[in-house]
Amino acid sequence: PICEGEPTPALTATGAGTIRWYSDAGLTNQIGVGSPFVPSAAYVDNTTAGTYSVWATSTSAGCESTGTQVDVLVEPALVVDA
């Protein structure tokens, strides 16, 4: 997990061939290629607490694997009262 305001972490995946990243479980919106991959704020908003999901596949010899869900948990920033 990261806290609100911290940089979005680089996500890593392994597999034979090319790693592709998608914003949806149906694998219709590809948002990146390669590993490691840092999703943009459109897909992982590091300024708002919540769980953000992307999906990774591996493509080799023209065949693409099923998607694997990768979650990024953004925790609320701590507030200190003075």
From TrEMBL:
<dbReference type="InterPro" id="IPR044023">
    <property type="entry name" value="Ig_7"/>
</dbReference>
<feature type="domain" description="Ig-like">
    <location>
        <begin position="2"/>
        <end position="76"/>
    </location>
</feature>
<dbReference type="Pfam" id="PF19081">
    <property type="entry name" value="Ig_7"/>
</dbReference>
<protein>
    <recommendedName>
        <fullName>Ig-like domain-containing protein</fullName>
    </recommendedName>
</protein>
